Amino acid sequence: MVFYFCTLSTKEWHQFTTVVILRENMCQCATDCPAGPLLSDPRFRQISIITACNAHRDAINARRTREFAADRGVLLHSFFSYDRWGKATIDPVHADNSISLKLQEMLWQVPPCMSDHHTGILTLCIGMPATELCATNGAEAEVVKMVAGKTPCGRPCLESLHVRLTSPPQNVQVPGLPMNVIPLGQSKRTVSVTLPVSDTVVAIACEQVMILSNFAMTDYACQGRTHPDNVVHLKFCKNHQAMYTCFSCSSSLSGTLILGDFLRG
């Protein structure tokens, strides 16, 4: 029997605790392998995809948000943040912390991965999966009610949001609301935003409801979660510990779907 360990360094090899040696090839070619599940299958279509990169998370969220609304024939609502200069930013032109409309338009287009995971435009609809970033620090939920208002420049903003927690560790009862439904209001936080012009980083005081769509999450954010259905994108995982974290969210083999291939070398 020949062992092909030439691509592994000694340090990497000593991190393994168990080795499984296959004594028989179960599939000789692609046509011999049974057809596996697909991302388009109803079982996996709404499952949050675990990926390594925040930019990929944002791109998946944007695309699947549109697909979610189209599948249900519902209207998506866009809610804009109200932004001002943060305390760390000194504007030599203006005496106050207000920003120009041109800069505000630019800030709205910056993805969450470039603004400390805060989104300038929240795109939501009733029933959409979401990740709450404030009161419960990353709990999974679904949108049940939206209360809209207006920003000073006349754009629609989200004044408050009601979400229903999905499988919380224990039930949450807020007086006057159904079980596991919690209200979320606007919060003001100073975030570091990387502008698309020359990668300039500015401090912005952002007023927005702290929530993101939950059609994708990073391998860091998925820690401690367990799902009967789990979709993982492993290509850009940094090491085998990151891959292990992705797979540890699976409660069954049949409910695990791997997207794409792996980086080699």
**Which spans have pLDDT < 50 for at least 5 consecutive residues?**
1-6
Radius of gyration: 22 Å
What percentage of residues falls in helices of 4 or more residues? 10-25%
- The rough form would be described as globular
Beta-strand content bin: 25-35%
Record field, number of beta strands: 14
Distance between the termini: 23 Å
Class from secondary-structure proportions:
alpha+beta
Largest sheet: 5 strands, antiparallel
Q: What's the order of the H and E elements? A: HEHEEHEEEEEEEEEEHE
Helical segment tally?
A: 4
What strand line-up does the widest sheet have?
A: 8-7-6-5-11
Mean pLDDT: 85
What do these coordinates show?
This protein has four helices and 14 strands. With 265 residues, it is of the alpha+beta class. Strands 8-7-6-5-11 form a five-stranded antiparallel β-sheet. A four-stranded parallel β-sheet has the order 12-1-13-14, covered by helices on one side. It is globular.
Q: What does this entry show, briefly?
A:
This protein has helices at 10-13, 54-72, 101-108, 240-247, and strands at residues 49-51, 77-80, 82-85, 121-124, 129-132, 140-150, 156-165, 181-185, 187-194, 201-208, 211-213, 216-218, 230-233, 256-259. The chain is of the alpha+beta class. The strands form four sheets. The chain has a five-stranded antiparallel beta sheet with strand order 8-7-6-5-11. Strands 12-1-13-14 form a four-stranded parallel beta sheet, with helices on one face.
